[in-house]
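INPUT
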Amino acid sequence: MTGLIIDALSMRFDLPNGGSVQALQDINLTIQKGELVSVLGPSGCGKTTLLNILAGFLAPTSGKVLLNGHPVTGPHPERGMVFQQGALFEWMNVRRNIDFGPRMKGMGQSDRDRITDHLLATVGLQDFGDKAVYELSGGMQQRVALARCLANDPDVILMDEPLGALDALTREKMQGLVLKLWKETGKTVILITHSVEEALLLGERLIVMAPRPGRIFKEYNLPFAERGVGADLRAVKRSDGFADTREEILTMIWGMEEEIMGRKEGAA
Amino acid sequence: MTLAALYIGIFVIAWIVTRALRRQRSDFTSLKTVTFGDESAVTPDRVASVLSLLAIFLIWGAFTGSRLTPLHVPGPFKGDLSFTYTATNATGTDDAVVHLLAHDFGATVEPPAVTPGDGFAKDDAGTVAAWRSVLVKPTANDGEAATITAINGQPITPDVPLFIDNARIVLTPKGSLNVEPAKGWQMEPIWLPAPEAVAARLKEIATKGYQNTSLWEHLAASLQRVLAGFALGAIVGIPLGYAMGLSGWFRGWFDPIVEFMRPVPPLALIPLIIIWFGIWETGKITLLFLAALWIMVIAARSGVSGVRLSKIHAAYSLGASKWQILRHVIIPNSLPDIFTGARVAMGVCWGTVVAAELVAAEKGAGMMIIAASKFQLTDIVVMGIILIGVIGYSIDILMRMAETWLVPWKGRG
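OUTPUT
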């Protein structure tokens, strides 16, 4: 069975003051190979916790995650990760960052060079291979991070707000790049974002999560990612249904926020 | 007080004059309207640095009568210091002259030749060195029971100082005169030698050595101790710091020791080190090892703790093993902190080695100045202090250059 299965996943932290937090409650999700899934929710809904469990950095208190039929027990190169920023190794140049994974596996120099050259071209950084990563702009650094993740040829790419720290124009360009890479490589991509627009655009499936306890609130199947591949993203954002869905989700999330606030006020 | 006022005066004048002389530039910084409080607009003015060194040199020269500097504060009086005294005895009074020659300190001069003159009071002759005083008894050759009653026509009483031009004279109860030529403002070489005296001493010691050891051996002895102590401190401290950064047990175990030893100045350990290891090389290197150790432990620990979790997570999900993460992520990430620690440790070690050599040593920069001070060879002491400062500063500059060369990513993460 190929794909990612999240089965009755729950996560509960004990707090130092003796209380506990139900970060995730009974998450069930099946993601097919090659799907592009975006996860959206107000802060504190457990989306980063979910991603950390998928990556293997956290062990759930109950339930399990299966990738291609075998359980996830820790980090593994089959599940690549792209972080918001600052996860590149600034003591290595761009090439050394990109071929880090293959190098750790002990792949030979010529194979690594082939992969790196190909990926540099894919993310549009042909002339930047020998630059230090701190000489690159934020958008270019995220291109390196994407290439570094792809160099390991993972089955699943987990993205934790990869475009969150970029300015609006760069962000839109990078959204196009993410769509292009998804389509070209056929990888399963799970992307967490704060931006409703980004979630709509970068998700064939959009999962909206709700906080306290963290749970899946609603799921959408959306056409915008498919439409956006190689197309003008602004046209997609103007197209039928995009604005309506965005409004619907925004209202939903506002509702959650107000519920939290109300609950807090009630408690106080 | 006067010196401080003089120095502040030079500072202000140099500032105003340089400002007036400078052409207006229009680079980005000079176009800023707000510079007060904008740290990036403040860069060291190198003209000021040069003038600062020049000012110190000029003041040094001015107060030591250096031949290298054009302006001097008044020096001690030298030359003819003759004065007339009035002697009184039973027969009446008579005037005579004391021909006194004030000469350079350390020079040998003949007293001026005099003819005794008329009357019972005879002329006398003598010499006095600058900054010193001389006891003369002009009445010794004036016959029986003559006493001095006036100097240059001014009446004098015992133990009350009398000032004539360029000298202070005190009549002692036994009838002698204590003559002290005016000292001026300059420092005696024994307090502060002139720059050229220090330079000459440097040349002499650089060619002939000091106490049967060449200057280079003295300095090399100190440097070797520093390098040995620092190297040992780093070899033990860095792995220990890593262990403390990576394991809760190590951190818990060594935290009390490190935090306790860190505020103890290495110099406070000298007595115990001497008791345990003696005064020779073992003791000194142990002391320097302890001086460097805690600094390196803390630097390595904070280097490890400072690694961003996302870098570690990224490395794990790229398939790196623990050892690979240590080697390719944690160690390079900690290098900037370790370099900062190494710079601090080298500075502390250099200061400590000099202090340790002051206590006891056969060779070394500190030993050189303490030995010289016992013979009041102030020029060697000043030379030694300058060399110690120059070497310490050079070490820091070298470490900084190594840092930019080896860890160019510092502060760019």
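end of record. Chain B is about 55% helix and 10% strand.
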